[in-house]
Design a protein that fits this description.
Number of domains: 2
Distance between the termini: 21 Å
Number of strands: 24
CATH superfamily of the largest domain: Enolpyruvate transferase domain
Shape: globular
Radius of gyration: 22 Å
Structural class: alpha/beta
Number of helices: 14
Largest sheet: 4 strands, mixed
Bound molecules: uridine-diphosphate-N-acetylglucosamine
Strand content: 25-35%
Helix content: 25-40%
Mean pLDDT: 93
Low-confidence stretches: 1-11, 434-439
CATH topology of the largest domain: UDP-n-acetylglucosamine1-carboxyvinyl-transferase, Chain
CATH architecture of the largest domain: Alpha-beta prism
Strand order of the largest sheet: 22-23-1-24
Length: 439
Amino acid sequence: MIGESFYNLKIMDKFIIHKSRLKGSVKISGSKNAALPIMAATLLTDEKCVVSNVPDLMDIRTMIDILAVLGKKITFQDNVLYIESKRKKSYVAPYKLVSTMRASFCCLGPLLAKRKRAKVSLPGGCIIGVRPVDLHIKGLKELGAKIIVDKGYCIGEAKKLQGSHVYLGGVFGSSVLATANVLMAAVLTKGETTIEYAACEPEIEALTLFLKKMGAVVSGEGTPLIKVRGVQSLGGCEFKIIPDRIEAGTFIAASLATDSPLTIKSANPLHLTSIIEASRMMGANITFDEKKNIFVKPKTLKPVNLTTLPYPGFPTDLQAQFMTCLCLTKGISLITEKVYPDRFMHVAELNRMGMSIQRNGPYSIIEGKGKLFGAEVMASDLRASAALVIAGMAAEGKTELLRVYHIDRGYERIEDKLRKLGAKITREKQRKQTKDRRF
Ligand code: UD1
């Protein structure tokens, strides 16, 4: 039985969604997953940094709060962050903030490199899996940091860091934020560091470009072998955040699921190869122009087999949204989740909408019926919420999506963007007794 303490009276928003056809063009925001580690990297300098094209999201606001606790003065206006240093600095990132967003754990590397000590709360597990941080700790230890885990905190000291050869391959391949953490520590570490099995995600490339603008000496970003020559200090800089490839992929999925031609603006098609390939296999016609506008023209959806993998493979962050599309085919598809084998919370919700998806370990078999039916469904995490919004727009009848606070963590004004495209989606306040779990 779940005890009373699990329940909190919360005022939460819900979406009411009806079957929609979309039309027109949508502008993609800056990437959340690029912005968060770059914000953490500003801890590597006391000089001013100006970061533009930052999406206004709950996760960004959480990172602002964490940096403020750690001694930064931040102004956030019109998607631009102005980050300066206060005289009083801390090295403690508390549980209250870190537990709400795992990306805040990537303050550990910069704190150790710049302030020589760090006390960062362990983020804990979340709905999409256990999500350990062993690779982060291993990598930083190999640079010479002394790290212990005590009472839920990762406590580190780094009086003398020394460049080293760090291997970051894990059971599930490379790790994005472990690569970010070790890279950020290495740039201020004496000597040369090689990171082998580094994550190749565009967000790591963006972080490296930011560090280079600060004065870091790095090569090999975007490949599994990153080389760093440590420097003594780093300065401030100005930087523009890259477009959010996951938001772009989400709108491609929305176009496919609702059978609506869409133009996606301000995205980088080079970051979307696996997603465009998957969409083409599903029957969509996708073209670009010289301004990098992406034109998506869906046709009758075909079933496909998808496997999520680290970049440049198909992203786990789009698995749920594309599962929704596969529900609308007439045939059998298989999804293999190789990054987070437990990331299938949306399966039960899609089944409430008329599907009978079979999940077995990291596999889900989707027998598309060509139709979904509106229902009351619950958002379990950020990307699952997006999948259910798309499902709601594709489904016959009315869908009520509860707990949409998850979606506010990672999509900037999603319902406004969708409404401008013609979606029938409204946000309503919901006063309800719900389980209070933080993911
Ligand atoms: C980042 C993204 C997240 C995305 C994920 C995978 C940000 C802010 N978040 O998260 O949206 O879903 O990449 O593309 O950028 N692992 C270990 N040990 C570790 C670290 C990770 O075993 O120390 C495992 C994880 O459990 C997972 C796999 O490695 O199975 C990949 O995770 P990772 O790349 O680290 O994800 P994040 O960087 O946390």
